[in-house]
Amino acid sequence: xxxxxxxxxxxxxxxxxxxxxxxxxxxxxxxxxxxxxxxxxxxxxxxxxxxxxxxxxxxxxxxxxxxxxxxxxxxxxxxxxxxxxxxxxxxxxxxxxxxxxxxxxxxxxxxxxxxxxxxxxxxxxxxxxxxxxxxxxxxxxxxxxxxxxxxxxxxxxxxxxxxxxxxxxxxxxxxxxxxxxxxxxxxxxxxxxxxxxxxxxxxxxxxxxxxxxxxxxxxxxxxxxxxxxxxxxxxxxxxxxxxxxxxxxxxxxxxxxxxxxxxxxxxxxxxxxxxxxxxxxxxxxxxxxxxxxxxxxxxxxxxxxxxxxxxxxxxxxxxxxxxxxxxxxxxxxxxxxxxxxxxxx
Length: 345
Ligand SMILES: [Zn+2]
What we know:
Elements: H1 2-14, E1 32-33, H2 34-40, E2 45-48, E3 53-58, E4 61-66, E5 71-74, E6 77-80, E7 86-88, E8 91-94, H3 97-103, H4 112-119, E9 124-129, H5 146-163, E10 167-170, H6 180-187, E11 194-201, E12 211-216, H7 221-224, H8 227-239, H9 247-279, E13 284-290, H10 293-296, E14 302-309, H11 313-320, H12 322-343
Parallel strand pairs: 9-10, 9-11, 11-14, 12-13
Antiparallel strand pairs: 1-8, 2-3, 3-4, 4-5, 5-6, 7-8, 12-14
Helix pairs in contact: 4-12, 5-12, 9-12
The structure holds zinc ion.
The site of zinc ion (ZN) has 5 residues, from loops.
């Protein structure tokens, strides 16, 4: 269809009549309809024909636009557009700057995950389902256990990556307990590009809910010489046939790995938080630096995704639901692949 419209547009150009397209067939360049935007960003649009107002909710922001007006209200802010919102054949049409003002330059169209998969830049990912065995993780509403929720989601994420041609290594693919040290050791093997740890959150207050994603913050002195970190460095050095007994060489390797990790982890974390919150959809509690063991002791770009709160009644029931788990898993896979495409990972 897109190809058909594109060739039609070319024909119109060649015929010298591009300035008089059939009404409703081609919109002026850059304009977008409410329907297109809502489909593109997977959000709900509500149209009120009495007040001629369209309302969208996107990442906790409510966006209101009035037909005939060039002002749009985004949360508590009012933004002036280059032209008024108007209606054409029943559709609500926005001027070209509306999409950017509302959805922001950092937001990438959803389809770009396909380009990320096709780029072939992401070859191998380690998926880490948190906790397991004797360690149930957080226990939530009606005894819902974090370890069970995250293992199922991790398996779904694995399937998603494999479908995109990415090799997946699971730190655990069973009920068995595995130490944090072993998880980071598994991530320290040849050609692993990325480490994605999957957890579910808990809070004393039942009302707290939403998505959080973490990445490793700055390392302090003790972190740098932490036993597991040194063991993983040694392993990496030997994998690449580098001598690990020369302190300077080890320090340089470590700094290089850390710089590489830091170059990508925060952006990846932000992309996953946004992608998940938008597509699942749940509240985005943000992307944050943290000193979690598996983040500071892995030597490759790494994120830890908190998929929701097992202590929140609404999210606990969602986290039990197979469809919701599948949506979460797909959103994780797509957000990572989209990031790979836009970041030059
Ligand atoms: Zn956890």
